[in-house]
Design goal:
Protein name: DUF533 domain-containing protein
Number of strands: 0
Largest sheet: none
Helix content: over 70%
Shape: flat
Oligomer: single chain
Number of helices: 3
Radius of gyration: 12 Å
């Protein structure tokens, strides 16, 4: 279950980066989930770190007024 949540977050961030629709992010999330599942716990850590860093940067930019 945790893997699916992390993959959804990674897919959403990848979709935002591309500026595309939610479908593109969902497909990226499925691909990311399969890659993270093969990597085991390390994949979940890396995927969660990616999503957290992107959310942190977006929040920081919003506070600075960009």
């Amino acid at each position: 279950m945790t893997g699916r949540i992390v993959s959804a977050l990674v897919g959403r961030e990848m979709g935002r980066r591309e500026g595309g629709s939610g479908t593109k992010g969902a497909i990226a999330g499925v691909v990311a989930m399969s890659a993270m599942r093969r990597m085991g716990p390390l994949g979940l850590i890396l995927g969660g770190g990616y999503a957290a860093k992107k959310a942190y940067d977006r929040n920081k930019a919003r506070k600075q007024g960009y």
